[in-house]
């Protein structure tokens, strides 16, 4: 491996699993994608990674739900910002929790606010967990699957990637030449 960080993660896998768990607790898409990518490369075990990723995501979602449940109205600035962002979704959160949570998982920076709002609206925990568990499963299959299979396709085209650098360089050179010629010609026309 060419990365010092990946070397230590591969050497001591519990560190990698802990990093994925913490990363999914805090963030989502990119951590899951990278974890699936590295799992496909053999850095992590698939079964262990599924358990770690699922539990990190679920515990993070529950944390945000309870944070919204208990903070609701206590901190005016936080509640005001969350209300501003998520108030249009209140009806959807209450009536179509699964769809709202699922869509929010694919929307940058909206997922945590929706989970917080579900807690502040006092959505019953049973209903929240049912919707969230299903949304996590769909999200993990799509994002994790994309990361996993992207890694496999990268193996197929790895030897062609070195030519991509030359293609980009040639493309940049052509762009600069054309830009120079057009600007020179337009200056003459004026």
Q: Oligomerization state of this entry?
A: single chain
Q: How many structural domains does the protein architecture include?
A: 1
Q: What is the residue-mean pLDDT, rounded to a whole number?
A: 85
The total of beta strands comes to 0
Categorize the overall geometry.
flat
- State the helix count: 9
Q: Regions with pLDDT < 50 over 5+ consecutive residues? A: none
Strand content: under 5%
Helix residue percentage = over 70%
The largest pleated sheet is described as: none
H/E element sequence: HHHHHHHHH
Evaluate the radius of gyration.
Answer: 23 Å
* Category by helix and strand content: mainly alpha
**Distance, first to last CA:** 57 Å
Provide a descriptive summary of the structure in words.
The chain has nine helices and no strands. It has helices spanning about 5-10, 15-25, 30-40, 45-70, 75-85, 90-95, 95-105, 110-120, 125-190. The radius of gyration is 23 Å and the shape is flat. The mean pLDDT is about 85.
